[in-house]
Write a structure and sequence with these properties.
CATH class of the largest domain: Alpha Beta
Strand content: 15-25%
Number of domains: 2
Low-confidence stretches: none
Mean pLDDT: 91
CATH architecture of the largest domain: Alpha-Beta Barrel
Structural class: alpha/beta
Order of helices and strands: EEEEHEHEHEHEHEHEHEEHEHHH
Radius of gyration: 19 Å
Largest sheet: 10 strands, mixed
Distance between the termini: 40 Å
């Protein structure tokens, strides 16, 4: 358990075993941001991926490059100084990085909890052992064909590793989400995390829209008991309508530039990984440290100002605006 307090009155308790974080600001209010740096740093240690899926928002493929190990250690040193709690290793397919096990070990050595999401390819006995020794969480992406994900869940269970499933939810795969709930492999799963699809990358998919179908699915998910159910903060505009069954203290609006940030495999830092995928500009970690970029880089200042500023459109008149803040500040994926 880690307790943190900064000069601006931000306080947090971080459980290194579960990843749960409790935040508090002055006078007990919910703090707007962590001023010294992110709680969670999302790092693409590679843009290599053997699956080359058409819908990949990063366009990852077999020609994708790996982050150099000395750059990763430079990031770790800066992350420790900025008070980062967790690092989510991504890609591409992160476990295909040639130094992946060393990356897991180094991250723990710097007092930061690593986790990662795999597409299911390239998992080895050594990687499972390192995951058990060093990682806080393992997640596997769920998309057709599902054998790779099921293999990871089955093999991880042999090492006592409880796996999470990441499911990217769009307007056309709601029934596939329901079918996932029927899978026997969920007996070995810690949680299913539903991620709101963002229209970034080569492939085109239909975004979620407000309506009976989405509403019914969320009701079903909230009643599901076989494993835990979670949602990314990009689902916020759909979740705020469920205040009768959701404790809103467990739900937050967009955390980009407030409590989380992303660093690409070449060392560019962004408030959100999807900003990188959309071709927006980042700030090189080679030129500044994480805290300086976090506090002063224009993209971080702009996104915080956008989220903080009360909107002038019909969204601001919504009774749930204080919980939602208009949803995603970058992409048009919010509840219509």
């Amino acid at each position: 358990m880690r307790y943190v307090k900064d000069r601006q009155g931000y306080k947090a308790i971080f459980d290194e075993k579960t990843g749960y974080t409790i935040r508090m600001g002055r006078n007990g209010e919910n703090p707007f941001w962590k001023e010294t740096g992110p709680e969670l740093l999302d790092i693409a240690i590679t843009n290599y991926c053997e699956k080359e899926c058409s819908f990949c928002y990063r366009g990852s493929n077999k020609k994708g490059s790996h982050m150099k190990l000395d750059l990763y250690e430079r990031i770790l040193k800066s992350a420790k100084q900025a008070g980062v709690f967790q690092i989510a290793l991504g890609g591409g397919n992160p476990n295909q990085h040639p130094d992946f096990i060393e990356i897991l070990r180094m991250t723990r050595e710097y007092g930061i909890v690593p986790s990662y999401t795999t597409n299911g390819q390239g998992m080895t006995e050594q990687i499972y052992e390192a995951t058990k020794d060093y990682a806080g969480a393992l997640a596997v992406s769920w998309y057709y064909p599902y054998d790779d994900a099921k293999n990871v869940i089955r093999e991880a269970s042999k090492y006592g590793i409880s796996t999470n499933i990441h499911f990217v939810l769009d307007a056309d795969n709601i029934n596939l989400a329901r079918k996932l709930l029927e899978e026997d492999c969920l007996n070995y799963v810690n949680a299913i995390i539903f991620l709101n699809y963002k229209p970034v990358g080569i492939g085109t998919r239909n975004i979620l829209k407000k309506g009976k179908e989405v509403n019914c699915l969320i009701d079903e998910l909230l009643q599901f008991k076989k494993c835990q159910i979670g949602f990314d903060s990009c689902m916020i505009s759909h979740l705020v309508e469920k205040t009768d069954v959701i404790n809103m203290c467990s739900v937050d609006y967009c955390e980009a530039g407030r409590f989380s940030a992303f660093i690409s495999e070449i060392g560019n830092m962004y408030p959100c990984s999807f900003m990188c995928g959309a071709g927006m500009s980042g700030t090189s970690i080679l030129h500044d440290n994480i805290e300086t970029i976090w506090r002063s880089s224009q993209s971080f200042v702009d996104i915080r100002n956008h989220i903080r500023t009360t909107r002038k459109d019909s969204c601001s008149k919504c009774m749930m605006y204080n919980q939602c803040h208009g949803g995603c500040p970058v992409f048009d994926i919010n509840c219509k």
